[in-house]
């Protein structure tokens, strides 16, 4: 501030010196010029104070605006934080929903797998029953056939023996074996005696 005043003082003094160069300078003129300079200085000080007040007001307004902006930015950041929290909670809820659906699908898969295992076990049981029945039928058929063939052959031999001439022939050979040792030995070898 002092430098500014000194600058203006020298500026006016030099201007005054130039304007008075053609005239003779008296003390009263210097005194008048100094009074004018003081008035101008006072006016400049008032203007400077007004300018300073204006600048201070502007800075206060700017500070106030910055505070408002800061408050607005803080509010917006809080809104953004709130939105992020909401999004996070929405995402967590969605993940929980997907996990629940996955658990349901997994449970259904386990049920289907259990049903396949039951079906597989049932098929093994059916296969076992079918195999047992097949072997039983084949075994029964073999046993029945063998039994029927044996009985049929025994009955056929018995019928042949009872009704046929083989009995008479065998009786004749036995009679001959009483007298002939060789025929007796042959009949014994074959179990007919």
Helix content: over 70%
Characterize the overall form: rod-shaped
Strand tally: 0
List low-confidence stretches: none
Distance between the termini: 168 Å
Q: Work out the strand percent.
A: under 5%
Detailed description of the structure:
The chain has 193 residues and is mainly alpha-helical. The chain has one domain (2-189). Helix content is 92%, strand content 0%. It has helices at residues 2-19, 27-163, 166-179, 181-189. The longest helix is centred in the middle third of the chain and has 137 residues, at 27-163. The radius of gyration is 70 Å and the shape is rod-shaped.
List the helices and strands and how they pair.
Blueprint: H1 2-19, H2 27-163, H3 166-179, H4 181-189
Helix pairs in contact: 3-4
Briefly summarize what is shown.
This protein has helices spanning 2-19, 27-163, 166-179, 181-189. It is mostly helical and 193 residues long. The protein has one domain.
Name its key features.
mainly alpha; 193 residues; single chain
């Amino acid at each position: 501030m002092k430098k500014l005043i000194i600058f203006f003082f020298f500026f006016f003094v030099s201007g005054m010196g130039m304007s008075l160069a053609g005239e003779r300078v008296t003390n009263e003129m210097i005194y008048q010029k100094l009074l004018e300079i003081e008035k101008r200085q006072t006016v400049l000080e008032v203007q400077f104070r007004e300018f300073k007040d204006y600048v201070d007001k502007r800075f206060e307004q700017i500070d106030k605006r910055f505070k408002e902006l800061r408050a607005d930015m803080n509010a917006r950041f809080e809104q953004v934080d709130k939105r992020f929290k909401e999004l996070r909670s929405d995402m967590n809820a969605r993940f929980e929903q997907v996990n629940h659906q996955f658990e349901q699908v997994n449970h259904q898969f386990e049920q289907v797998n259990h049903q396949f295992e039951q079906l597989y076990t049932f098929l093994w049981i059916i296969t076992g029953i079918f195999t047992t029945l097949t072997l039983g039928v084949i075994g029964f058929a073999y046993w029945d056939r063998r039994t029927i063939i044996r009985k049929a052959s025994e009955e056929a031999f018995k019928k042949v023996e009872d009704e046929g001439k083989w009995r008479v022939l065998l009786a004749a050979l036995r009679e001959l074996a009483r007298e002939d040792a060789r025929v007796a030995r042959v009949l014994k070898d074959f179990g007919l005696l």
